[in-house]
Amino acid sequence: MDILDSYLERYGIEDIREKLDIFYEELIEWNEKFNLTSITDRDAVYEKHFIDSLFAVTRLPEGAKVCDIGSGAGLPVIPLALARPDCEFTSVDSLNKRVGFMDHIIEELEIDNCSAYHDRAEDWAKEHREEYDVCTARAVAPLNILAEYCMPLVKVGGIMLAYKGADGAKELKTAAKALTLLGAGNVNTLSTTLPCGDRRMIIMVQKVKPTPASYPRGGNKPRLSPLI
Q1: Count of H helices and E strands in the chain?
Q2: Cβ distance 54 to 76 under 8 Å?
Q3: Which pLDDT tens digits describe the chain residue by residue (228 residues)?
Q4: Phi and psi of 214, rounded to 5°?
Q5: Count of C-beta atoms within a 10 Å radius of residue 120
Q6: Closest to 189 in 3D by CA, of 10, 55, 4
Q7: Strand order in 184-193's β-sheet?
Q8: Angle at 119 between CA 87 and CA 110, to 5 degrees
Q9: Is 74 helix (H, G, I), strand (E, B) or coil?
Q10: Does the N-terminal peptide bond of residue 152 adopt cis geometry, omega within 30 degrees of 0?
Q11: Which of 35, 70, 105, 114 has the lowest CB atom count within 10 Å?
């Protein structure tokens, strides 16, 4: 039994292993043309991408409507969609080539609870404001920037799940005022260490009040002039 098998068994989702194997093969094939990931070794992809993505699998409420921002090569949204067929997933990415890969892998793996869209997060929020129970994001932006993209999409009472590395606690301190401004209440963290020794953290932000209508700002302002 390898590391991935052991992890899947722990959460009772062994049945997704075959599809994760196919996901890996397709990712590597497409990566030769589109540079979707710098990590290509099988064991490293399984550990640093798949296991990392599944870190939040038990944190999604039953039947949740989930939006993943900046999905890139489908991480964490594809592993989560495979593991949680009870939930409905929406993937949003600003690069069409990545959305093309997402569309391909959704069809290849016959995933019927996930759809991918080409759009900017701030534009998506104009049509889908406070529509989702959960908003996830992995390796997208520092937390104070990420919160402006994600929090407007989350319903009051919902959560944002931000995947972070060892610097997550530092980012949380920097983003504290921005989170409050955007409607955040309780903030909790989940930490783990991958078998390779890399530290991972998920920052769980509960939304307790509506995000002011002026956020997210357009014109790439969340990145050019981050909230502090």
Answers
A1: 10, 7
A2: yes
A3: 588 999 999 899 999 999 999 999 999 999 999 989 999 999 999 999 999 999 999 999 999 999 999 999 999 999 999 999 999 999 999 999 999 999 999 999 999 999 999 999 999 999 999 999 999 999 889 999 999 999 999 999 999 999 999 888 899 999 999 999 999 999 999 998 888 888 999 999 999 999 999 999 988 899 999 998
A4: -75, -5
A5: 17
A6: 55
A7: 114-118, 88-93, 65-69, 132-138, 154-164, 199-207, 184-193
A8: 40
A9: coil
A10: no
A11: 35
Q: 178 near 149, Cβ under 8 Å?
A: no
Q: In degrees rounded to 5, what are phi and psi of residue 208?
A: -115, -10
Using an 8 Å Cβ cutoff, are 82 and 8 in contact? no
Burial classification of residue 97, based on how many CB atoms lie within 10 Å of its CB (0-12 exposed, 13-18 middle, 19 or more buried): middle
The dihedral built from the CA positions of residue 192, 138, 144 and 206, taken in this order, carries a sign that is negative
